[in-house]
Amino acid sequence: MPQPILPSGLSDHLDAAEANLIAQGVVHPARVIKHVVNGEHERLLGNAPKTGQEGGEDEVVTTWQLEAKELSKNSIPLVITLALQYSLTLASVFSAGNLGSNELAAVSLAGMTANITGYAIYQGLATALDTLCAQAYGSGNKHMVGVHFQRMAVFLMVLTVPISIVWMYSEEILKTIIPEDELSRLAGLYLRILVMGAPGYALFECGKRYTQAQGLFMASTIVLLICAPLNAFLNYTLVWHPTIGMGFAGAPTAVVIIDYLMPLLLFLYVRFVAGSECWGGFSKRAFTNWWPMIQLALPGLVMVEAEYLAFEVLTLMASYFSTAHVAAQAIVAQAGSVMYQIPFALSIAASTRVGTFVGGMSPNAAKITSSTSLVMSVVIGTFNGGLLLSTRFLIPQCFTDDSHVIAIAAAAMPIVGFFQIFDSISAVAAGVLRGQGRQYVGSYTNLVTYYVAALPWSWYSGFVLGWEVKGLWSGMAMALAIIAFVEVLVVLLTNWQRVVGEARARESWA
């Protein structure tokens, strides 16, 4: 990447950390000036003059080839990270699910409830850090990365209280909407144990974004390379071991242990390996000025929650067919979720890269990154779809030997394979929007598309037309196609100078 040239006399005002950012070509020196006195006027950080045009001399210069290389390089450890993190849940499905069809359905139901009432809330609100931390790092205001992390962590700890109450009484809640009491009982047991690990999960979600904003994508990968095998061992030991095994209750117990081990190992990585430069110590600012952060976080919550809830409603609908249909629905959902980890990894890489360029006042570089990532998403989506179609009978056999469940899942798999390209595009476009700080676009789009178009069609085709699980997923295919089109259109029509201006304004309240 061509390096920006320091204007005459400017280097005298830079410290070592600021000079290092410039040397890496991440930001233009104008973004890391602490102050430059010119007569009686003082230009503060972030207010140095610009050329006023994209691709001007004060921007980082990049190309689509370079961005494709950087996005690919950053996505690889993220794919591993997401796959390993997803394996934590998958291990529970395998270990408890193999106890019987009821247990498999109960794990799916418990996972659905945990996603809707807890995990989606943590993940959705934490998307604000995709914007705040990346833009703060790109601007050279490194310690604000740590402050943003602390604010979000404290905020999520407060929200853990109502989430815990819901999980503790989940059995009673589920009995009002699930026709089979045994499923509600087992799912409620799972969640009452799982609630103990909620704070650890929330801290890890914040910690991932803290490290990713600094380009430390391997940090969470290393943590999960340790935790994932341990989780598999714990699932076997706590579920199946003839002496200390607890049966069904062992699966969520394993998750709780790992939920606390992950943030602990990530802390040790930051402390002793890399990432501490953005930690300015514990700050009282973590307990103040929450509302601007919440204003950015709430659209992220709506965006993630709307999607989570829409997909999990399919499980509720499937429960009105039979337990076999719930099990088949769980298998199809797991397969789609595994494939989603690849474009989602690219989404995170694109979000971080765009946010860093926006924070560094380089709109043209951010624009090139966005376009490159969208093209890459099409390639990934095509690959994912072909893989699911070619393994539609093999995948269900990995979860169960029930021929009826396998037949139901295999029949729905082609539809899931078909919409992989739309799922991939929408995931990456949403990542670009997070990097811009425009999560609200995805929140409005998801809310309207899923609940006005997709779910009504899923119900009609599943129950009225008699397509059952295939019909349920046809609605999701429709939704993702619409969401992909809208979000890509918004990204392509972005006024990048305005996005940079919004990022600069955001610094004033930080």
Automatic annotation (TrEMBL):
Mode of membrane association: Multi-pass membrane protein
Transmembrane domains' residue ranges: 152-169, 216-238, 244-269, 290-311, 331-352, 373-395, 407-433, 440-460, 472-496
A Pfam family assignment: MatE
Cellular localisation: Membrane
Major localisation: membrane
GO molecular-function term, one example from the UniProt record: xenobiotic transmembrane transporter activity
Family statement drawn from the similarity comment of this UniProt entry: Belongs to the multi antimicrobial extrusion (MATE) (TC 2.A.66.1) family.
UniProt name for this protein: MATE efflux family protein
Species of origin: Ascobolus immersus RN42
Source organism phylogeny: Eukaryota, Fungi, Dikarya, Ascomycota, Pezizomycotina
